[in-house]
Known about the structure:
6-stranded mixed β-sheet, 1 helix, 17 strands, globular
Amino acid sequence: MTRSAAAAACAGFLAFAVPGGAHAAIGDLTQLTGALGCTHNVNSFGCAPGTSLDQPEQIAVSADGKSAYVASTSSDAVAIFDYDPADGSLTQKDNPDGCISPDGSGGTCRIAKALSGPHDLAVSPDGKNVYVGGFDGLAILDRDPATGNLSQQPGGPTAGCVTATGSGGTCSTGKGIGVIQGVAVSPDNDNVYVVTYGNDTVATFDRDETTGA
């Protein structure tokens, strides 16, 4: 077969395999239509209305596919969404279950310690906890696997958070803890890791798989 004949045969095969771009390429994205396609703090851009979404930094989805959590630095909050498996859309929960913050954000959110300026967050693979890192340190939140709701880790005055100073006895004290930029939970649920800005550290924690502490 000549080179020109081979080229013609190849071109014919490609034309048959990809008929004029009739099918979208693998990896193409199509945004959901209307308000399903986005959520916005003040209901702009044709998005669904949301709350506690000033300067969102990171999003994490639970392994069971029921929930999504957004760390919003300027809101000092974590916004909480339900996931619809039928179309992939996210719907923020009704207040006060739709967010959690240090002061309750004027009564619209649940209250939790050590949530100032959250930068990153991670859901444990077993779905029991959400760990949130930010300006204050690390907040440890319990997750209800049935509803996706979040509440502060219980267990005494210093439970529920880890900071460099212990925050006046309201949190546990950890070394090398500064402004937390990243959080990860090991696949076996045994450990939590955080990276801190300014201190140039990776902090390593054992995790109690029963309590999440």
